[in-house]
Amino acid sequence: MFIDIHTHVSTREQWLSYQKKAKPASSVVEGRQVVKIISLAWCYKDSPTEPDVETLLKFAATEPNIYVAGSINMDANIGQQLKRHEELFQQKKIVAIKLYPGYQHFYPYEDKVTAIAELCAKYNKPLIFHSGDFYDIHGTALLEYARSIHIDKLARRCPNTKIVISHFGFPHLLDTAGVVSQHDNVYTDISGTIDDSGLTKKELSALTKQYIADLQRVLRYYPNIKNKIMFGTDFAGEETPLKHVEPYRRVIQSLFNKREQANAFHDLAEKLYFA
Ligand SMILES: [Zn+2]
């Protein structure tokens, strides 16, 4: 079994295609199937493709294995949204909050983030940051805000908040490892880096191998972060470049021994999001 902590599954069709892709390959131990996925809300309302927290909650209510992370629009009334997210934590309807610094042009260490970090700490749930590269259909996102190094100050200021840096901060893998290594309260995931807008099988395999090699290099320098890395895919549907599950599973299996795999596939996620 495994937990995918980073998906954008928001329709029945996407969920079916996810499950199909997550079926264990013959080489994989029987029984290691998805039990839970976390679907992350978008920070804006009224996007035709990406649901905000309320829309996502309606969908997830019908699917027992899909859990929701809320999201705060930093350009709207934050106090009001905090109130709503506090209710959602109390009702156990969300398992985390996600923020999008690169899309919304703010730094994670800005003062306005502190209240959100404190709310997450109060309910002992992670604060997730989109970090690194974008899937930016509007062409407005800025990489500068999305660099994982900017988590450093926030992590120091809010030591009781569990922080997750998405996508290993790609392409700043070493920066991310540095931040995760420095702070007990910072974690990361491997999602979203295997971007496929029409790769051949061979190219996909080469890309996956490259990612494994790069992460091996990072872990050579930072072996102490091995137990702070989680499985995630960023699966967003067949019609997007984020449509893979199996290559990410291969990454975890290639990097880690059996015990470490259990941590990355489910134990750590269980502890951070569901305890
Ligand atoms: Zn994502």
UniProtKB/TrEMBL annotation:
The keyword ATP-binding does not apply. InterPro entries: ACMSD, Amidohydro-rel, Metal_Hydrolase. One of its GO terms (molecular function) is carboxy-lyase activity. The keyword Zinc-finger does not apply. This is Amidohydrolase-related domain-containing protein. SUPFAM superfamilies: Metallo-dependent hydrolases (SSF51556). It holds the Pfam family Amidohydro_2. Residues 78-274 form the Amidohydrolase-related domain. Keywords: Lyase.
